[in-house]
Amino acid sequence: MQVYIEADRKSWSELCLRPSSDNPVVRERVEKIVARVKADGDEAIRALSREIDGVEMGELLVSEAEFAEAAAKVSQEVKDAIAAAARNIRAFHEAQMPSPVCLETAPGVRCWQKPVAIGKVGLYIPGGTAPLFSTVLMLSIPAKVAGCPELVLCTPVSRTSGKVAPEVLYAASFCGVDKVFKVGGAQAVAAMAYGTVSIPKVDKIFGPGNQYVTTAKQLLGNREVAIDMPAGPSEVMVLADETAVPAYVAADLLSQAEHGADSQVMLVCTSKDIADAVCEEVEKQTAVLGRADFVERALEKSRALVFSSVEDIVDFANAYGSEHLIISMKDYWQIADRIVSAGSIFLGNFSPESAGDYASGTNHTLPTCGWSRAFSGVNIDSFIRKITYQELTREGLQGLSKTIVEMAEAEGLQAHANAVKVRK
Amino acid sequence: MQVYIEADRKSWSELCLRPSSDNPVVRERVEKIVARVKADGDEAIRALSREIDGVEMGELLVSEAEFAEAAAKVSQEVKDAIAAAARNIRAFHEAQMPSPVCLETAPGVRCWQKPVAIGKVGLYIPGGTAPLFSTVLMLSIPAKVAGCPELVLCTPVSRTSGKVAPEVLYAASFCGVDKVFKVGGAQAVAAMAYGTVSIPKVDKIFGPGNQYVTTAKQLLGNREVAIDMPAGPSEVMVLADETAVPAYVAADLLSQAEHGADSQVMLVCTSKDIADAVCEEVEKQTAVLGRADFVERALEKSRALVFSSVEDIVDFANAYGSEHLIISMKDYWQIADRIVSAGSIFLGNFSPESAGDYASGTNHTLPTCGWSRAFSGVNIDSFIRKITYQELTREGLQGLSKTIVEMAEAEGLQAHANAVKVRK
Predict the structure, then answer these.
(1) CA-CA distance, B293 to B299, in Å (whole number)?
(2) Residues of B designated catalytic
(3) For B63-109, what is each residue's pLDDT tens digit?
(4) Whole-model pTM above 0.90?
(5) What Rg value do the Cα atoms of chain A yield, rounded?
(6) Counting CB atoms within 10 angstroms of each CB, which of B38, B193, B211, B233 has the fewest?
(7) What's the pLDDT tens digit per position in A71-129?
(8) Whose CA is closest to A55, among A205, A191, A187?
(9) Cα separation of A289 and B177, whole Å?
(10) How many residue contacts between A and B have a Cβ separation below 8 Å?
């Protein structure tokens, strides 16, 4: 990790840059994949599995027998852990459920806003280097809490075993996912956006993925289907002062770095001593970790910054807008209250990112790459729409009629005015 | 309007089709405009105003003098109407403001979710055939209620006067918009997405527009900037039984049809008699309206359907997912409670769409083209992010540690497990 001391504000936009991900080659390939799935549906999916992954797919839908086989392979310890995590995730998302709003804005004019669950939800769970079954919990539990009637999940099979990770299938079944399909990559996103004979067209697609998945979501989002957010490589920023424990901070940075070579970790400290102590710990802990290749490549893209002023620390954290922000500082709530851009914030020395990644109850599907400036992490709102209603009495409409007619006529919309006048 | 009696469910997807809007020529032009603004900023904007609109632009920022001139031109009646509408819109959006959520999900594990306003909001207000100053209210009032610190508005000047409509400037000033820029079309969207010397880069872009604006929002949304929703031509569906008043229904259909030639209006009735009576009224009222060319072209694309079964009426309304849904039926709440896809619902004989378009308090920026399946209309949530926080005690983390370690190890993420183990 390169260390920057009192970096000038002019250099901040460069220091906030993420490893670039806009790849025109990927984009072009994804456009072709999407076009093929749109045109040929299941047939295109099978052909793409053959071409890209060298896997010959039969039935795409996971069968009861496959679910049973998966459940038998998952240890009781993991099952218990899933149940414990699910309890907390469910409780925290239930607490977020919005209530209907009802207001008489003027005499005889009643307005409502009511939450209504999205009908068909599509979840994408990556396969790849780690079977991220925790994401199954993070997406399907809030969907069920919101009341979404239909949950579809797509996930690739392993190239070596030709099967879906058993933990993913167990978690899907545990959380009440209706159908799981053995499809990965951009083709899975396209299938859920357009629908095929096997795979239903959904209203909104959720979940992380590699460059191909993200590009497909960006391409089809707002055109064919809604998406949760434009996800990118994971990232963490740790703010540390003299009350931070270097071994803890190092462990948090490394837990982010092991996600992949394109992950980014940022350390912001109040002194160079702390930065040095953390860097030393990072080296020590890296030596005993698996996935050290990923970790080392991620650390190359990572930065340690030292600012003596709390003002600078807060402003830099907001400028970066980290997906995960760990505040290991004495007055952590005072800092947290001044943060306006972050996905999720971890407070104090005993709130590692892993707690929120798995089990505390917060969601781990969060905006990366500075998108926290405009997007929330996945939460109960992600699975509902809020429909408004209004009921006016004859007198209620009369009370508003002058206002409506005046505005409609000033906008040159005669028929809008007439819809009020005709009701007199 | 063509009338369909007891249309077979197999034909519904065709009957729910909107006038197509995906135009590759528009897309290509927008891509070029966006690239030019990204590369040359203000200079590109001035060149585009010259080329597209034949207008020579000086300063893009609206001056104090221009605001004063506009305020002098707006009648007191319109000013009063704006103030009255604003009161209701503000009240209804204030009532929507979400509260922070706090929950101890397990002993020593506290999780929060807090709403935080988006920092920089960009509003687009079309010029075109009607100066839609009501949209200024619908976007800027909730932004201010949410607490967004910076509101920027782009709107084109009239080709004939070279000025922005005075009502738009008055409304912007009245609602506390910080800066108004005289830029329209795809170039306005690109300017707010990338930022130029004059126009600030924003976090999220809101507002309706023509095909160029919508295409630019779809293109840049999820890649460079967040957007409110993929807006398209406006639409209304009216459900009518024998308690509906044909003259009222006709007036509602026409108030939608006058929006533009690409608007769509749908009538769903319980009997052919009602459909005939409404169609007759539509003809009668059209004869006395301005904008009759728009109206007639919109009506060509519109449909009247007759279903004797309430089941069919509800299912068809949900299949269409109308932006505006007017329920002029006896038991309108019973029907409304079964609607799961609509932008905003208008109940009974005295709740015309115009009420919500201007003054009742609900928002009129709503999902069109079936997007109500996944999107809400603009509401207070549109202007905030919900950030999560967690604070674990040493004991709280210990209580979760087995769960976290078990899951992390099953996912092959050793460093995630280590971030917990190191804290023992």
Answers:
(1) 10
(2) 323-324
(3) 999 999 999 999 999 999 999 999 999 999 999 999 999 999 999 99
(4) yes
(5) 25
(6) B38
(7) 999 999 999 999 999 999 999 999 999 999 999 999 999 999 999 999 999 999 998 66
(8) A187
(9) 53
(10) 424
